[in-house]
Amino acid sequence: xxxxxxxxxxxxxxxxxxxxxxxxxxxxxxxxxxxxxxxxxxxxxxxxxxxxxxxxxxxxxxxxxxxxxxxxxxxxxxxxxxxxxxxxxxxxxxxxxxxxxxxxxxxxxxxxxxxxxxxxxxxxxxxxxxxxxxxxxxxxxxxxxxxxxxxxxxxxxxxxxxxxxxxxxxxxxxxxxxxxxxxxxxxxxxxxxxxxxxxxxxxxxxxxxxxxxxxxxxxxxxxxxxxxxx
Length: 230
Hints:
By secondary structure, the protein is α/β, with parallel strands linked by helices. The protein is 49% helix and 12% strand. The protein has 6 helices and 6 strands. It has helices at 2-45, 72-86, 108-118, 135-144, 160-169, 186-207; strands at residues 49-50, 61-65, 92-96, 126-129, 150-155, 173-178. Strands 1-6-5-2-3-4 form a 6-stranded parallel beta sheet, sandwiched between helices. The longest helix is centred in the N-terminal third of the chain and has 44 residues, at 2-45. The model has no long low-confidence stretch (mean pLDDT 88).
């Protein structure tokens, strides 16, 4: 009897060992796939990302992606967009984010617009997209709703590969302009973005995800003032 119990315990230990090894192999495989997909996306889009305004190919519109109005990312993206406008690289700026707050004047896109005004950008050269809930929505709506064919996407360097990949899938010709990165949040800039890039691939290749909200087309009037100077 005792020998049987010992044999059974030994058998269960063997099963648990195999299970543990299997889980380790699975976890390693998942991490490897995530790493490979991230590396592919970053390298595939690297040629379309610019750090100097003078080097960026001109486009009619700069698409500024929302970043949360209380974050440093927010202000740095507005700085970068204003830099492009002053350099004559764009005629218009489309700010895309959450614009449906209880207080419309305190919404993300309202604050983005106000931030650009304080940076000397004319009101006529700014358009709000209040339904840019995520990067996919922002680029898809830029193409479908605002009827844009070419843009300069403004965001931090860690975000731009995903934004450019999604833009390409929605037939939006885009390059990226790098905004200053505060570099103070490992979760947002690395771990979260690693997963978000994989999610972007799933959205495009498997899920065929659509924007959360569309609506009637609203082409942007590009007859904006040619300079930020008043």
